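Running log. JK asked me to keep both predictions on one page so they can be read side by side. First protein, sequence followed by its tokens:
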Amino acid sequence: PRDQGLPGAPLCSGEVGPGSVPHRSVIILSLEGIDRRWAQQLPAMAKIAEEGINFENVWASHLGSAEALAGIYAGAPTFTEPAVYALPQPQFTGLPRDLRDAGYTTIYLHGGDLSARQQRKFLESVGFESVEDIPPSRITDAHGVSDPEMYVQFRNQLQQVAGQRYLAAFATLGGRPGPGGLGADYAAAIGRSDQALGEFYSWYRHRTPTGGETEYERGTILVIVGHTPYRSTPSVPADFEVPLTIVGRDLVVPADARLRRGSHADISPTIRHALGIAAGRCEAGTSLLAPQLPDARLQSVALRADEPTLYVRSAQGFWARELATG
């Protein structure tokens, strides 16, 4: 594999945004097993998409949530799991590290178990000072604890850092389908997760009962992204499409932003742009809020060892699947 988000990778973005609200905090919610088609059917997701910047052409980095971490938090190119979880593990730089160095509190809450494949080590290496997951003994759903319970825990964590600048991330895992497949139980679990998301969004966006300033009014940026496709074995390119919505006060939004094509690798550069800070040295993506996207972006991404398929992001902004040759 090549160009895996390590120092010296040739696809490092250089845009710096206007930073209209200095010292914004950032909340990232990454949702398991929800693709863009599911998101359109969920009431809370649909409402948030209407009120925020809803990017309509965003693709998951991989089939699994572990691989999505590298794209979202380190800006690594798609299908780079060998680089992220190799032994010894490479040292990635990431948005959490840069914000932590600037005085931010950085916390990560995972709705399942992080013990597999060095996921905890990766999250700590990119700069999360607090990484919390769920021990296997507490897992109640297919892969994690129920999302409504975890949203309450995440809000409690945010209340503990109130008044500080922070980057806080939460990954849901309670709604992912188990061995039984994608039946009515899955739809019910996703519905419960969406309801909990709606309650969280009300807390973020609307005035509190005590009349205090909301996170939205403070300038906090809320990023909601699907971190895995709905189907565990995608058969067509559309199966990789995931929701991405960004909400924030006074964000400068290009007219074509909603139609821009992107991936998980573009999330960190987009957040950096909104904060007005320089892009990471080794991020493969580009800010989706930049005034103009580069005229030419060609990103060849890793071959999977178990599948002779090459995923290519072209200058025109679409993804193609081609059999590898030679």
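And the second, directly underneath as requested:
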Amino acid sequence: ISTWGVFYHQAFVEEYGKPYIVSLNESSIPDVVQVLLIVGSPEWNETAKSKLDAFIFRGGNVIFLLSSMQLNLSPVRDKDGLSFVGQNLAYPNAGYQSWSEILKNYGFDFATNLLFDFEHPVSLSKVSNLQKQYYPLWQYFYKSEGNLHENHFLTENTELLILPWVSSVNIDHSKQKNFKYEIILSTDVQNWKKNNVFSLDVNQKFKEDEVNRNRASVGILASGKIYSYLSDITSKFDSKIFVLSSAHFMSDILSLPEFRNVYKNSNVSFLLNLIDYMLDDKEFMNSRTKKSAVFPLKSFSNRERNFYSFFNTLVVPFFLIVFAMRRIYFRYSRVN
């Protein structure tokens, strides 16, 4: 669920070529880099935080796709659809403290929670031919429902997004008084949340204080001259920062046939347009809306689906058993 190779190879590289891969803990950010795309839950040391702050201070732009919560889940797909197996528990990510601290100085306060949506959940599987199984930890965001900013350039041609496993993000305007903050993505008026360590059971009960009756922001754009909390100076250059509380927004799992249209036409286009917006390339953003700028993902045929299902169900376990038996045999032979 944490890989995003489909987007990287079939969309990003096609649009921009191979990017610089930067490890902030070990290497510097090249001067030619204009936009950083940071995905996941990085564990940064103080040197890395200093490099990031210096990059933004000189006018660099950053896109954060971050997850405050750790999920130890693996996807399983069968004839009825998609499900998840593994540890049915969510808890704060190991790197949360390291990156949340610096983001708080930029005015973004990530909560260690997950938001449940029982109004617009995504259907992952079916329990019968007539009944679908919905997963409230994945949710659809509709412009018509107020989930997307109505008048912003970023959402001008976006009507729908799919967001897996999102958390709430609050804005602290006191941290960056020269920044303009805009909420680009937010939940429905009523949503449900679980904090810190909790079960991922979608049928669990919620306490009264776990019900939000106000929209929770999950995607925020900030722009302006940053005040560096490290150097205690305000920059002379404008920067842009976008935060989204889901590191799974570009997950490969969204390229499965049942989610592919939304993923391809909405999520991928939104992120490519966001990158262009960070690069101040609005002309290319306009041209993308007039043609398909994203990859034409091909659906699997029934034969291919049956083959992959057979391969994963029988062939892989068979070779694992053979491998284990060979190791036991050779170990026993050495002992004797």
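Observation for JK regarding the second prediction: The chain has a mean pLDDT of 85.
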